[in-house]
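Notes, p. 3: input format for complexes.
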Amino acid sequence: MAALEVEGLTKDYGEVLANDDVTFAVDEGEVFGYLGPNGAGKTTTIRTLMGFQSPTSGGGTVLGHDVTDESDLIAAKRRVGYLPANPAFDEGVTGREILDLHASIKGDERRDELLETFDAPVDRKVWDYSTGNVQKLGLVQAFMHDPDLVVMDEPTAGLDPLMQRAFNDFVEAEKERGLTVFLSSHVLSEVRRVCDRVGIIREGRLVTTEDIEDLLHRTGKFVRVRVAGDVSASAFDLDGVHDASCSTTDGAVSEPAASELAESEPADPDTPRVDGPVTECTFTFTGDVNDLIAALGERRVLDLDVEEAPLEEVFMRFYGGSDA
Ligand SMILES: Nc1ncnc2c1ncn2[C@@H]1O[C@H](COP(=O)(O)OP(=O)(O)OP(=O)(O)O)[C@@H](O)[C@H]1O
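Output follows (324 residues plus adenosine-5'-triphosphate):
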């Protein structure tokens, strides 16, 4: 049985068609990422699945319960954890009181363990919380009754990189335990480690659902490389290079870029300094990484960044048009 199903879901707010005939399913034990740029319609789908708003047409099920039938959905809610976008807790009470209330409604199987992982300051009143601490409290609340399915709207928003890593480790461990997770994000690189599959939504329409490995294989890596010398884009004329663009800075001595200096003062004595021009090239790479290493090996490489292709790039290359 699918843990979560969306069937022909349409939500028309009047001026905006926020979900347009959206259909997909999340299997039991799967971690499914719902990806899309700001305003794509992710929150609309999630709020409808949680029964907070009615669809214009279509609908769905959560753990087999109809999301458009309030009394039917209540039966599922006990087994579901939910983290909304920008969780809004009562600011005048402590985190502990919020968790106590949640425990009295849905249960408390693993609060202490979760507080060790997410480290929210439960003895303070919520008005003293930073954005990140509110998010951490929301995560503890979403998981503390040991649900079968957890639905999270942008769960890593507001978390620092260390806490994002802790979150990823935690979700991976939960997946091993058989938990089903549905989470939204607007950053492909953020979901790649934890998700089995993703659905991509743009302007209210689901453009694809596919295995994350297949998607990453197709979308490739975004490469930014700085090399010594005046190099043209044809230097990277390899199978799998797309949209290569190079720009050369002339000059006797190349200093680190101003943006780098701002981030990493004082200057690193190991930063290569070069007499003569420096070229920065950017491209997307979907080919054999050994070919790229060989091509780079022919140059004096000063700096290299390789990262997941941004979602806007994925849209431009595969789904026609930019959504940056
Ligand atoms: N209650 C509402 N009334 C009218 N329009 C709405 C309402 N809620 C959302 N919208 C609009 O519907 C569209 C989809 O919004 P939604 O919040 O679902 O997108 P999202 O993908 O979650 O975006 P984000 O990543 O920015 O949170 C947007 O154009 C938004 O402005």
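The longest helix spans residues 161-176.
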